[in-house]
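Posting for a labmate who doesn't have an account.
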Amino acid sequence: MYAELAEPLEGPRVRELAAIARANAVWLFPGTIIESGPSGEVYNTAILLSPAGEVVCSYRKIFPWRPFEPFTSGSTMAVGDIPDVGRIGLSICYDIWFPEVARHLAWMGSDVILCPAQTSTSDREQELILARATAIQNQTFVLSVNASAPHGTGRSIIVDPEGIVRSQAPSEAPAFLTDVLDLGAVARVRRYGTAGLNRMWDQVRTDDAEIPLPLYNGSISAQRWRPHSSRD
């Protein structure tokens, strides 16, 4: 069924979404689409559209919820810049259960991590905790946006870089959340610390030994540890 609904990014579905962004002169993050790959792959893909209707970045979900989701796994992190505002990192639903995704998006300079979901199961409570933990661990804004009933359990949430909940939908009922985010808070929290204490991105020093990460066949080193910035 999913394969029948899949379209390439240049297909009519994205063209219609681009037209909406242009007509309203807005940055548009329309959740996810079912994307067809060049060799018959079927991806769960998020896109960020500019007010000109351009696809600024796209992201294929790296961690499909297996065995229930039949999607092909993506392999590339994705961030997009909104000029004079900040950098947006894209993730999808089950990705939030894997700290590697958010850590790399933060390292790539994300001020905000967007995570649209269609969680209809009993684990939304855990996802809300993960949204706050992700914000705290990476000192970024996290927007975990869940589908409302009957397709999801709702309770979308906006979390700031210190893990404080700025806004949250109260139930599974349809709801609108609005907020004004000061993305400069990301740099301030990283400079002065979460709760004025914790500066995780400053913990690796040049005289520290390189830390092996055998799970990833890699390591943590001072030369690579500090994140990029959308303002660099």
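Reply:
Got it, the structure tokens are right above this. The chain has a mean pLDDT of 96.
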